[in-house]
Amino acid sequence: MVTVTMVDEGLRPRGQLHVQKVQVVMRKNQPHTFAVDVAPASLNAARRVGEGWWLIIRDGDLEISGPVTGFHRTTKNGVAELEISGSSALCLVGDRLTFPDPAHDEAHQQAARYQRRGAGETVIKELVNLNTGAGAIPARRVDALDVAPDKARGGQVSVDTRLKNLLEVATGLADEAGLLMVCGLTGRRITFDVRPVRDLSRRVRLSHVTGETTGWEMTSRAGTATAVVVGGQGEGADRTLTSVTATDGYRRRIEIFKDRRDTDDAAALEKSAREELQKGAPERTLKLTLAESPTRRFGEDFTVGDTITLDLEPGVTPYAAPVVEAKITWEAAAREVELTVGGLDKTPADARVERLRRELSQIITI
Hints:
Elements: E1 3-7, E2 13-17, E3 19-27, E4 33-38, H1 43-46, E5 54-59, E6 62-76, E7 79-87, E8 114-119, H2 120-131, E9 145-147, E10 156-161, H3 166-177, E11 179-186, E12 189-196, E13 205-207, E14 213-221, E15 227-231, E16 241-245, E17 255-259, H4 266-279, E18 283-290, E19 307-311, E20 319-331, E21 334-341, H5 348-363
Parallel strand pairs: 9-12, 13-19, 15-17
Antiparallel strand pairs: 1-2, 1-5, 3-4, 3-20, 4-7, 5-6, 6-7, 8-10, 11-12, 14-18, 15-16, 18-21, 19-20, 20-21
């Protein structure tokens, strides 16, 4: 059974809301989002929820907590309705930039770039701590945010950043290191942590035989880049140019250009090229509706970021892939779970952003 708890600006619980419907969208290494339709019995109590308040959504082991980001009020035939929307606490990481010199404010920077190399967990937690945690300057610090102790988990990564969005940088590092970022309330404090993604492909198998996959759709797409030319420092014929290529089943060479005139380091140029190849790799996206059972319950037996096995229908070879998104809906005492496995489905807006990114790269002077 889902419960929704109100939390005030001081992160103090202020009672529960009766709800008609709750919908949560969870994405790997991104802030989860939620929308809560308040039941008529709680409309008066919900009027206390204002800017700076949080909500906690719980159902068994599944918990999402974060700040309220919007209200939608309507009246139909004299009946008032209220929807409260919000985002999980990981959005606080997305509120910051990566300062080259986090120890000083923007007017007194003493470094051109922030550069680190090490275990993924170590690098990510240092970035978060210095830009928004206890290690940040007072103007940028979230006083209630604690960064969990570092255990040096994850693969080796390197970061070279200047005034980029902190969440975007941390997401890339977490994906590269095989880590999952989590952030939420612990009492009256906010805890940021990471953990290794789990390979549960041998333990969690969703199968048509046991009736756990009640409906599904699959989309496969060709890649958008198989050869990345990276430009380092220099001008004209003296400019450093290097490239990295990849092959796929579509047998096309699709070239794009990546500008990195800020560095001439060979490792950094290659890393940028491989990141672009990853963005442009072929994708297979599977969406399915999960029929939960006592032994296959989302949030308890597996969650976003975990790799599971899918056995969709007779004649289709079972395969393993990570869960990248989950949409959970609670309504009329029922819970429905829709999973996205493999890659996220690109919306028309996503396609426009990708096209714009490509066009901008061509404007840059090569």
